[in-house]
Design goal:
- The chain is α/β, with parallel strands linked by helices.
- It contains ten helices and ten strands.
- The strands form three sheets. A five-stranded parallel beta sheet has the order 2-1-3-5-7, with helices on one face.
- Strand 1, helix 5 and strand 2 form a beta-alpha-beta unit.
- The chain starts with 13 loop residues before the first helix and ends with a strand.
Length: 265
């Protein structure tokens, strides 16, 4: 008599996880991909349940689904990730940031690229996770938006291999990427020369300290070059409005500048 053949254990699928968790299939799929579209507690609950049930993704299905996502996302075009490192979401974007995004969208459309926004805060600033998501979606390039607050040094352990990266800022200190930024030093030099030609001899400037760091000191370097350094007022970004106003009033009374350059708000 032949021994009975053992029946292989049935593969646990998304449907079984969805039924056990009391959620829809899409919620399970997004949670297992750690999508920020699903709240973190729900993601963690479903991921834990999947492990308990012995879920393992089918590599062939994963490969096919990845190809499908890529085809839907890019429609045959090269994809570019537009990444910001703002501290919160949503974040009140500066007009300069909005102009950069508009320029990226316009130029991408002209060149046949797709531009997809990503916010690091949605991935708990886990850069390795974010880059993995970008690669999974078949995106081949990344454009980095200027940061706010202190300049950033990004996670050195995160690999950017396989991605073409351009920074639109000097505020990303490391790693060093190709960058496209305004020629801040040359622009400031020209402005100062035009002001002096117009008879405005006492040039002053008011900047926040973080702004000076983020712009690699290009504006203050030009002012110092023209010997206006003594009329630079550097205000700590954390100072409250009342103290800021008092400091500015004292500075104006002391220096009486003919013209004042200030960062836009």
């Amino acid at each position: 008599m032949k021994p009975a053949r053992s029946t292989p254990r049935e593969r646990v699928g998304l449907r079984q996880i969805a039924e056990a968790a009391g959620v829809c299939l899409m919620t399970v799929s997004l949670s297992l991909r750690d999508s920020p579209k699903i709240s973190r507690p729900t993601r963690e609950r479903i991921q834990s349940l999947a492990r308990e049930l012995g879920y393992h993704p089918d590599p062939e299905i994963s490969r096919l689904m990845n190809l499908l996502r890529v085809s839907r996302t890019t429609k045959g075009r090269i994809g570019v990730a537009v990444i910001d490192f703002f501290p919160t979401s949503p974040f009140p974007e500066h007009a300069y940031h909005r102009l950069i995004r508009q320029g990226i969208a316009q130029r991408s459309e002209e060149l046949g690229f797709t531009a997809t926004p990503f916010s690091a805060v949605h991935y708990d600033f886990n850069l390795r996770h974010l880059l993995n998501v970008i690669r999974t979606r078949g995106i081949e390039g990344a454009i980095l938006i200027p940061c706010v607050g202190n300049p950033l040094s990004l996670d050195a352990a995160a690999s950017w291999n396989g991605l073409s990266v351009v920074a639109t800022t000097n505020s990303i200190l490391a790693p060093r990427f190709h960058s496209v930024v305004p020629h801040q030093f040359a622009n400031m030099m020209r402005l100062i020369e035009e002001m002096q030609a117009a008879g405005l001899r006492k040039v002053g400037a008011v900047f926040e300290d973080f702004f000076d760091d983020r712009t690699a000191h290009n504006f203050t370097a030009a002012l110092n070059w023209h010997h206006h350094g003594r009329r630079i007022l550097m205000i700590p970004e954390a100072v409250d409005e009342a103290r800021r106003a008092r400091t500015l009033a004292t500075w104006l009374t002391k220096h009486k500048p003919d013209v004042v350059f200030a960062q836009s708000t």
